[in-house]
Specification:
This protein has 199 residues and is of the alpha/beta class. The protein is built from six helices and eight strands.
């Protein structure tokens, strides 16, 4: 059975869908939910599911990203995860840290990568007049939102969409995509998963 650590910064709704998916004949189980924000809503949700939680508050490290990442590495090492799933984890990690977990770390990003790396993805898709949007799960490499794509889910952009309405429809697809990609990754399956939705 593989162990999965999930890193969050906020509400943790993707974390919940990942954790709930790891049951029965699933090849993995959650071993830790770690947040960089002490007040992240996802911490209580993880605790309610019986998953150990840890906080590494980035604010206590000031601008010292290397020290923050070293602490996260220390905590992760205590839990010995086989897979690290970033799920709404909103800190940019140092190259040194990413190298230590290379090939084991996944991220979900709310755009059809390689489009719209970084922030404000939905507004950027609307501004560009795109007819479709979506989300991607990829392996984390030192290039921001740039590692190999393992799966994508697409939604049509609707005429009256705002960044908020689009984000909420993409989020529903995130809940389909990430658990399925995680399962395939834990099973060491290869290939890119493509999901589509009507709206
Ligand atoms: C999700 O939409 C996720 O794709 C996004 O943050 C949200 C977290 O929601 N991630 C990024 O923007 C990463 N750069 P959640 O905490 O409810 O899962």
């Amino acid at each position: 059975m593989k162990k999965v650590a999930i890193l969050i910064s906020g509400g943790g709704s993707n974390m919940v869908t990942l954790a709930e998916s790891m049951q029965g004949d699933h090849p993995a189980r959650p071993c830790l939910v770690l947040s960089n924000r002490p007040n992240a809503g996802g911490l209580a949700k993880a605790a309610a599911m019986g998953i150990p939680t840890e906080v590494v508050d980035h604010k206590t490290f000031g601008k010292d990203r290397a020290a923050f990442d070293a602490k996260i590495h220390d905590v992760l090492t205590q839990y010995q995860p086989d897979i690290v799933a970033l799920a709404g984890f909103m800190r940019i990690l140092t190259e040194d840290f990413m190298r230590k977990w290379e090939g084991k770390m996944l991220n979900i990003h709310p755009s059809l990568l390689p489009k719209y790396k970084g922030l404000h993805t939905h507004q950027r898709a609307l501004d560009a007049g795109d007819s479709e949007a979506g989300c991607s799960v990829h392996v984390v490499t030192p290039e921001l939102d740039g590692g190999p794509i393992l799966g994508q889910a697409r939604v049509p952009v609707l005429k009256d969409d705002t960044a908020e309405t689009l984000a909420s429809r993409v989020l529903i697809q995130e809940y389909r995509l990430y658990p399925e990609v995680l399962r395939r990754f834990a099973d060491e399956e290869t290939g890119v998963l493509e999901l589509t939705s009507e709206a």
